Amino acid sequence: MATFLYKLGRLAFRRRHFVALIWVALLTLAGVGAASAPTAGSTSFSIPGTEAQKAFDLLEQRFPGMSADGATARVVFKAPDGEKMTDAANKATVEETVKELSDGSEVASVADPYTAHAVSKDGTIAYASVKYEVSGMELKDASREALEDAARDARHSGLTVEVGGDALQTTPETGATEIIGIAVAAVVLVITFGSLIAAGLPLLTALIGVGIGISTITALASALELGSTTSTLAMMIGLAVGIDYALFIVSRYRAELAEGREREEAAGRAVGTAGSAVVFAGLTVVIALVGLSVVNIPMLTKMGIAAAGTVVIAVLIALTMIPALLGYAGKKVRPAGKKSRWMGGNRAEKKAAASGTAAPAKPNLGTRWASFVVRRPIAVLLLGVLGLGAAAIPAASLELGLPDDGSQPTSTTQRRAYDLLSDGFGPGFNGPLMVVVDAKGSGDADAVFKQVGDDIKGLKNVVTVTPAAPNKAGDTATITVIPDSKPSSVTTEDLVHSIRDKGAEVKADTDADVLVTGSTAMNIDVSQKLNDALLPYLALVVGLAFLLLIVVFRSILVPLKAALGFLLSVMAALGAVVAVFQWGWLASLMGVEETGPVMSMMPIFMVGVVFGLAMDYEVFLVTRMREAYVHGEKPSQAVVTGFKYGARVVTAAAVIMMAVFAGFIGSSESMVKMIGFGLAVAVFFDAFIVRMAIVPAVLALLGKKAWWLPKWLDRALPNVDVEGEGLRAQTDRNEDEDRELARV
């Protein structure tokens, strides 16, 4: 591995024009594809295997004109103080609005509040239900604008008019904080390298990689039904790992220059050593992201595969374009320890030359910290574990759900419509349950429909049960149930389970199927599916990465320690997410206007992404220790050596990754905001507490046992040579060839 990458690095350095041309061509090709691609179509949220999805599929089959997955909107009207919605003037305004809404090209139906009994008991609030023929993501901008215009026209009469529903679903905005995150990354790179040129290389290559990845996703969005969140996640992960991977190779290149090697040789060795770590670190991230497919939620699978694709691009760019750009930069990228003249490097060198003496080299912060940990391993280990354990305590109160209009900021019309409906009709009105009764196999369908309705009326927490509405064939009917609690509450979830239990009894008596669906039931099924998949997913991802790390480190205990450390950091990060988004701690600081259940896919998504990123730091830091140990250093000294060369770079990489993730906290989309915060906190815990404190403490306590591997397993494992042992022989051959050429 190291020898192959060494040759690749030297080749890219020599053939830099060709390499740069290839990547520019790929970027151009992807950009043209994105520009000419059709607008993304449907991004329907299907959950194979769930009862809610089975009911949706049955509705499409038995009610072909119903548009079960079509977008919906509720235009909510509130009369001025002292007036009623039944007053003649207000009624005329509503009827005019209903007529205006009915003229839309994509509108399937509009329910008049006065004929659909959609006026509150006190007469102050009414709503018109709008059903569209296409899903919210397929809805044309003209249809959304017509909806907003109708509401705006109605407000001119003095009514309060708000619009809720998924018809107003739009692409999330990330805000200016994303740019701030990239700016922070640039500052960290300049401080780390002491050179604007060296700092610019990781940023440039990361942006090129993300550009290729996002453009490719945009070009394929229509064909593969990729949502806007897919590209946001790919950008988030691609930027973070792209900068980090390039950072490690450039840092190793400067270290090789400091040891007196020629620039081409230094580039080859940097790619051969740090590049090997990049490959395996990238593989762990790809395994974690692609592994999301085991959950069997198409949207999550597409998100994971798309993000994994950007990681692969980041690895390839780091291995090829970085050495090519280093060739272009020439002497402008200086050896480690030397700064550019813009950073005061020339002044420091002139001062040292004038004095005629060189100050003794002072151990860097990483060396001093590792020496301290090696001397006090038990204290550091206990402090780190207890600290992460305390941060993880809120995770015990984790409540899962999917966001609805009730989680929107109070400044949005969707949230105001949600609140008006709650005030006028009760909190459960925002999450009606649709019960689908398939009586095709029963003898008397009408009797079954009536029995199901009566059974549901007898359950607790039920406000309204509408009469059954059968299809033309008379073998299938829908029943709408209004709960007494809000959609995201545990009480509503219990009601869904109670209806399904009654459905099982009906099935046994009449052979009719009773299915519960609707957005609320779908959210409950998604949460359950994700919970059920978490442990198998964790076992798969951690197991595969554990085997990979055994090959990399040729050790049993080091990969085991890496996996256990990851579990600590991800639990602590989940605790922080619960504290902010569920309990409301520091919510205003994070721009969280409404607390509530944590997004259902957050735990499994965090496990996947954080595990991959955590293994990045493990590979980059511990491979340096392994390299020192293989070359003859004692275990405790190898830990210090690993920190001497790796701590500064890993710290910079972690700060950069935190800045990039934190940049997405400014998103208008609650899902993106939560992911950005969770990943930023997880990187902090994992990089600075687990990898920087717990890992060296454990390795110091284990000593030589840390690198133990059974002989039979050592013989069976392939030798990937991450430490670059084979490079010595390659370097000797190169030197012999140079001497032969010099004689000639």
Overview of this protein structure:
The chain is α+β, with helices and mostly antiparallel strands. Helices cover 64% and strands 7% of the residues. The strands form 3 sheets. Strands 6, 7, 8, 9 and 10 form a 5-stranded antiparallel β-sheet that branches. A 4-stranded antiparallel β-sheet has the order 2-3-1-4, sandwiched between helices. Helix 8 packs antiparallel against helix 20 (635-662). It is elongated and about 100 Å long.
List the helices and strands and how they pair.
Elements lengths: L1 H13 L1 H21 L14 H12 L9 E7 L9 H15 L4 E5 L13 E8 L8 H15 L4 E5 L12 H17 L2 H29 L3 H31 L4 H28 L7 H32 L15 H11 L9 H11 L1 H16 L7 E2 L11 H13 L7 E6 L6 H13 L4 E4 L3 E2 L5 E8 L6 H21 L2 E5 L1 H35 L3 H26 L15 E2 L2 H29 L4 H28 L7 H33 L8 H6 L8 H19 L1
Helix pairs in contact: 1-2, 1-9, 1-10, 2-7, 2-10, 4-5, 6-7, 6-20, 7-8, 7-10, 8-9, 8-10, 8-20, 9-10, 9-17, 9-19, 12-20, 12-21, 13-18, 13-21, 15-16, 17-18, 17-19, 18-19, 18-21, 19-20, 19-21, 20-21
Query: What is the CA-based Rg, rounded?
Result: 30 Å
> Termini distance?
33 Å
Mean pLDDT: 83
In percent, how much strand structure appears in the residues? Answer: 5-15%
Shape: elongated
Into which percent range does the helicity of residues fall?
A: 55-70%
Write a brief structural summary.
The chain is of the alpha+beta class and 744 residues long.
List keywords for this structure.
single chain, alpha+beta, 744 residues, 23 helices, five-stranded antiparallel sheet, four-stranded antiparallel sheet
